[in-house]
Amino acid sequence: MRTRHTLATTAAVLLALTGCSSEPDAPASRHTVSSSPTPTLSVSDCADAVYEVDSAARDAGTDPADRLMPDPCVGLTADQYMDAIMTATQRLNQEARDDLQNQIDEAAEDQ
Hints:
Blueprint: H1 2-21, H2 43-60, H3 78-110
Helix pairs in contact: 1-3, 2-3
């Protein structure tokens, strides 16, 4: 069940990012001037933020696919964002497996 949910969530995010990333052809010489320095973007920080949002959604019983992109993820490439989502998902899945194993161990001790 969780695998299907994870795959569906990943697919939904990929489709959303694909739809948002297409832009009309632009001249190659287009330059953007920024008055503020570009913050250092970290996939790890993004993964931590996605984990927190998804963990809270799981605890609340809501669908993590409905989340907005957390602030630390804004500005990452689609590949970096997907890496962060996968890292957070793997962390959540490992926690769920650990919880299940603890329940199995406790049940075995009670017998």
